[in-house]
Specification:
With about 160 residues, the protein is mostly helical. It contains five helices and no strands.
């Protein structure tokens, strides 16, 4: 029988996947890109939901929604301009919390398909938008926390 040569000491022990700073940077960059994409998707789903509420007459369309529009603009600014900065992570964290709470607010009382939505058409899109918003926004929340945590770790070194 042939015996295999022993591996060199350098390759004999498994190393951490992110052992070099460049590997860690690539990991953080992928998380930043994913966070930007999920934040943009959350903003899109939130605008679909708000538009659907206005069209159905659940919410009055008008100047009353300017604060919601301004919040989405700030969220968009954080996602596109402040990516990778502490302020961007905080803005996306707050936006993702708001996006995650939206489905919960509609689940109180009559539920997602109770109350006024029962007799209207397009219930599937309304419910799907809320569920998708909750999932994507919560994922954005997790990525924002990871981003803030990685900033904290990199500053402590």
């Amino acid at each position: 029988m042939e015996t295999k040569e022993l591996k060199s000491e350098e390759n004999a022990y498994p190393t951490n996947r992110f052992s070099t700073p460049s590997d860690l940077g690539e990991y953080e960059m992928k998380n930043n890109l994913t966070l930007t994409i999920t934040s943009l998707l959350s903003i899109l789903l939130a605008t679909f939901h708000l538009s659907d509420d206005i069209v159905r007459g659940f919410e009055p369309g008008g100047f009353r929604h300017i604060s919601g529009i301004l919040m989405m603009v700030v969220w968009l600014f954080g996602a596109l301009v402040l990516t990778g900065r502490r302020s961007g992570y905080i803005i996306m964290l707050l936006g993702s919390i708001l996006g995650s709470v939206m489905p919960l607010a509609h689940m109180r009382g009559a539920g997602l398909v109770g109350g006024r939505i029962v007799n209207s058409g397009g219930k599937f899109f309304w419910v799907w938008t809320l569920i998708a918003l909750g999932v994507v926004a919560f994922f954005s929340f997790v990525l924002s926390v990871l981003g803030l945590w990685s900033l904290r770790r990199s500053q402590s070194r």
